[in-house]
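User: For my dataset I need records formatted as: sequence, then structure tokens, nothing else. Please produce one.
Assistant:
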Amino acid sequence: MDAAEHPVVGPRSPCPCGSGRRYKACHGVRRRPTPVLRPFVGRADEPDLVALRELVPSATAPLKLSAGFLAEHPEHADRVIVLGTILPQAAPALVRDNGDIVLAMQTGIATNDASVDIARALLAALEGKYASPVILPPATAGDPAADAGRTGPTLLDLLDPAPLDITVHPGFAWWLPPAEDGGSLDQEVAAVLERANASVVPTARLVSVDAAYWCRPGERAHLRWVQPYDEELLLDALARLAAAGELTVGDGSRFIGSFRADGLVVPVWDLAPGADADSCETPAATLRDRLEDAVADLGPLSPSERRMRAGVVGRTLTLR
């Protein structure tokens, strides 16, 4: 076919298909697949993976490859792999001079599945050149990786199932190889690191409960707690506790709402002035036990609980 058979059609022009609609509203629409709702479902540490992707500015965790993957690829048995929140220039991964790999959670999504994309970056790093960042080719329309979702391996396929051992950092010194950490840095590198460190919101992970993160984005501190429960059951449970006056994490705290991230609900509390992470530990453990009981209660909500639920739902937003 020549160019005359493929005329250039403006977005506001009639669609060549004869539908009578404008091209941009008909065949000019770029139809993207629905994102995978819970990309990390199936892992015991799913809430923490969501937190590392959506909430935590700077954190790392050592990774171990799954026994099944290593059985097929024994050459990678001795590779050192670290999962991090974000890398310079939002690189998906980098390979150090010695072959150690740093894999990022907070990176762009080429497909409709974050777990597939991060797994692609890990596989590319395992096969990539030393002393270089990983550059992934963009997934294009018609590419199964872009259109069909879980056609490739996911993190669930590549990683050992043991929960992550997470360390939250005050800055990004972990970007540097250990020999350079704290040493004399090139001025440009030092400037980049200084700017990145200045952007970090003070954050700490609670030790008494899973996937709960204290942070201080301003004058007041917050607690953000990624929950593993089905959303409807969780919203009922939050309503029950709110109606009973038990939806708190310590004196002076206040439940202010929730947001959805990667298919999970993240309740947020405004904490009392001066509250640090340590002061949240015991109240959070108490709230966890109450929440477990409330989630297990499948009875109908009382009138006051239904009113509370309407307020809880109204303060639930979705991160996109």
